[in-house]
Structures are given as C-alpha cells and as structure tokens.
Give the backbone structure.
Amino acid sequence: MAEAPRLPSPLQEITGPELGEGKFRVFLKRDDLISPDLPGNKWRKLKYNLDAARQGGHRTLLTFGGAYSNHVRATAAAGARFGFATIGVIRGEEQRPLNPSLRYAADHGMRLVYLDRASYRDKTSAAVITPLRDRFGQFYLLPEGGSNALAAQGCAELPAEITIPFDVLCVPCGTGGTLAGVAAGLADRQRAIGFSALRGGAGFLPAAVRALQDEAFGGPRGRWQIDDEFHFGGFARRTPELDAFIAGFRARHGLTLDWVYVAKMMYGLSTHLQRGTFAPGTTVVAVVTG
C-alpha cells in the first residue's frame, strides 16, 4: 500500500557556479519527497479529486496515459492507498512483458486496458467515454496528466508552504495544471515560470493555463509565463547535453533529476541565472515535481 503523503515538502537551498553563485539565492521545493508513491504535483493534483470521487459515491477511478505515465502510476498508488479500484486506459497496443511503470500500476491493483492511437486522440469524446462506461460501469474520470480545476486548486496551496520571501517560482510544465495552480497562490510581487517539456509549448500552453484558471478560480490569477526554449527536442526526448547536466547536478548536489521534466527546468533556470535574466539579489524557488 502506498505511504500517506507528508506535507509540507522540504525547502533546500543550493549553491554553485552554474546557479550564479553569490548573485542569487536558489532553493529547491522538494515535492519529490512528499511520498515515494505519490510524489510532487501528482499528490497535489489528486488530493481534491479523490475527495470529489468519494463524495460522489464513486468506487472506481479511470484515467488515461502513455505506457510510461507517472500519472497512471500515481493513480494506481492512490487507489491502493485510499480504497478505490483503478482503471488505466493506455495509449497504443499492449506490450509484454509490462514495462516497470505499468508493472507497478498492475501490482497496485490497476486494471490496464489499451486504446489504439487514433481513438486515444479522441479520448475526451463521448465516442470513447460512453463505451468505457458501458464496459466498466460508473467511474470517476481523471484526465490525462491529472490536470483539471480540482488539480489546480491543489497546486495553488504550494506557495503558502514556502517559508522564505521569494521572487520567482519555477515549475516544469506538461499540461499546464501545476503552473495554473501555483500562479494562483502567489503574492502580487511574485511571478511563476513554467518550463515546457514539450516542443512549441509557448503556442498552446498559455490557453490551457488560462482555461484551467477560469474553471478553477473564476478568472486569471497571478503573474506567470511559459518558457519553451529548453524542451531538448520535445516531450520525453533528451540529448547528450542534457544528460551531462544531469550528471553534473548529481555530482554537485546529490540529486538525480528526472530527465523528462525537472532536468529541463533546472537547465533552463541555470541558463537564465548565468545570462543575467534575473536582477542580482533575486530569490528563486524551483519545484522538484518528481
């Protein structure tokens, strides 16, 4: 069974030449330590959705994801921890043996079903959802990546946990849910930067963030921006340059960064600190989401 989440997550100051040593203060918000099974933004996104599912009388959670989805893993763990059956609708054909992510989900009781890629693109449509309800009965639907209004509300609680004055809050960005939430929790003088892990994120993520804020908070909240310079080729893509940065960061700070999201954010933040994008004396908090 998954461990109960532990909040607030720790704050860790780091220094080094790649972080503009002496000119700025840089802290890591270690959301990866919330729980080994429900780390980071995964717990914050699931928290109020689990409450809503329970209050609605649902006994089953259904969600969508790729074969290596951390959200699918976390949903399986949450179901095991809080007493829900779980169904994971996985993009593409079944592959055996299961990869470690899907094996973890299955070991935590998740029923895995597969959807061809063409159908998966229409996963929010009635043409996909209705047959799933006919097959499995009533379920609480969690969107791919877990980003919805309740997820944003959970993420909005993060800034209040930060016990030091800060100027900039950095988060990795995939679907925009975490950024939409944390921006809503900022003070007027603070701002958030979402580092897109997807190519072209500056084109589609702003609309996604605005839509989530409209749904969750009734309108725009906070100062935020999308930076899509550091996607390293697109989602789940990496380069030798990124790998070298991860290795160097691990050697200097004792932390292995997730290469899909967090490493790209930290590479981007390091680049901005060295470029002089921020004024000297700026205090930056970077959220380690997993």
About this structure: The longest strand covers residues 85-91. The CA atoms of residues 46 and 151 lie 6 Å apart. The chain has a mean pLDDT of 94. Strands lie at 11-14, 25-29, 60-65, 85-91, 110-115, 140-142, 168-173, 191-196, 223-227, 283-287.
